[in-house]
Design a protein that fits this description.
19% strand, 11 helices, 3-stranded mixed sheet, 2 domains, alpha+beta, 201 residues
Length: 201
């Protein structure tokens, strides 16, 4: 394959939403040498291993979520990281919490602190939303599912996190009692969570 020149390479990256994978760049005629030259010149910057973006576009609002979405596309943002995205926690997590299906191999994201949680098939598949973050589609559990997940994993993240989240969830005035009950049944925590839901919601 013939390689394209510097100006054309920048145009290709712009047409790709301002970001590009190394493999995509090569398939589109941008040589590794040219890509590294653009990196050294500051024309592009590294988002994560094998992923680049033009330096002159708006700064990433949430680089951690973007990195996870690009490096581990089968994972779903969960627990306190999802709560934070939905503005129903004041907790600042030191790790990005992600869910993957049971028996799957944990994604390797060496340059980002990630906590992997293995969910059963139905629990993993339920309640997923896709949000576009910095032009990148990111899979995140919705507010209601995140509430239930945090109760289920209360032994790891703390009961106080769940209590705060359910109160902030109520304050947003977009509660869905029936949906929480549905998720609680799927996650097999219905009998234990329902007293808290009825008392707080």
């Amino acid at each position: 394959m013939s390689h394209i020149n510097r100006i054309k390479a920048i145009e290709v990256i712009q047409a790709n939403g301002g970001k590009i994978r190394m493999s995509e760049a090569i398939s589109l005629g941008i040589s590794r040498t040219l890509l590294y030259t653009l990196l050294e010149e500051g024309v592009i910057e590294k988002i994560s291993r094998g992923f680049y973006r033009l330096s002159d576009i708006e700064s990433l609002s949430n680089p951690d979520l973007v990195t996870v979405a690009l490096r581990a596309p089968n994972s779903v943002i969960c627990l306190t990281t999802a709560l934070s995205f939905h503005n129903i926690t004041t907790q600042i997590s030191r790790k990005v919490h992600i869910a993957v299906p049971q028996k799957s191999i944990a994604p390797r994201i060496n340059d980002l602190p990630v906590q992997v949680h293995w969910f059963s098939k139905e629990t993993y598949q339920t309640g997923i939303e896709t949000h576009v973050v910095d032009t990148v589609p990111v899979k995140i559990y919705n507010r209601d599912k995140s509430i239930v997940d945090c109760f289920k994993f209360r032994g790891q993240i703390g009961m106080d996190v769940f209590i705060e989240a359910i109160k902030l969830y109520r304050a947003q005035k977009k509660t869905n009692y029936n949906l929480i009950v549905q998720y609680a049944q799927i996650c097999r925590v219905y009998n234990k969570i329902i007293p808290y839901i009825e008392a707080i919601l």
